[in-house]
Amino acid sequence: MEKKKSYGLLIIGAILLIAGIILAVITFNNSYQESVTVGNTLKEVKAQISAINDGTATGDLDALKAQQTELSAEKLSLERPYSYSLALVFLSVLLTAKGIYNAVHGVYKSTKTDIRRLAMAGLLAALCYIGFAFFKIDIPVGTEKTAFHFGNVFCVLAALLLGGYWGGLAGAVGLTIADLTTAYVTSAPKTFLLKLCIGLIVGFVAHKIFKLDQDHDAKYVTKVTILASACGMGFNIIADPLVGYFYKTYLLGVPQDLAANLAKINLGVTSVNAVLAVILASLFYFALRPALKKSGLFVNVTPVVEKPEK
Predict the structure, then answer these.
(1) What's this model's pTM, rounded to 2 decimal places?
(2) Which residue ranges of the chain lie beneath pLDDT 70?
């Protein structure tokens, strides 16, 4: 099959990257700086509420709680523009990288999108969103927060079913939208990068190395599924707190001591999320694999190439 060099994606990615960087600089110096000021006020209000609850101070508790709610909403709305622009930067970097690859190595002329894979990616992205937005336990840390959630379960499952590229995109898109539409809006760019990497790692181990989508016995499928899931989530246990520390310190301007505390807490939370993701994603894959094969919906990520007869 003939390849042809393509420059369209590179041009689009470069334009979006420039626009994203400009927007990021503008929004960081304006609305995000205002959100920092609001955050400091919010921190003081929370301290007053805590003091009243402890009996070390007096005041109108209802009024303070109402002010806390109002300030939280204001802080979130001021953080959104900068978070959106950072998410655009991260996405445009991915598009530019793919565009460079297409320009150097070319793309197959007759490549067509697998509609089944596209539909399943959309479904799994929605499940990633639901797993985080509706099945999470928030853990406040100062003006920041982290959470136990089930979003990673479907991120790993997507890579097992669809391969690293489509599975990674499904997890990245679903969980990034979940961040952007909840109180975790500032984590959206970091989420996009990390969930994409989880999908790529799980997909690489499962399909590129062990060819999981081909016919194997149950014992082999069990071992490979758990191993691939563990590799992806093992990466996340290390990368999430580490990347989170530098992301919050240098892109969000969070004080280093608070960023360090968040990283330590996040390490424990991420570890629990990882264990849940490995167990549940493996169980879901075991259940879905035979059902998808029987219905003709199973996606062959690494199809067997038949050798011509001599």
Answers:
(1) 0.86
(2) 1-2, 108-113, 141-144, 303-310
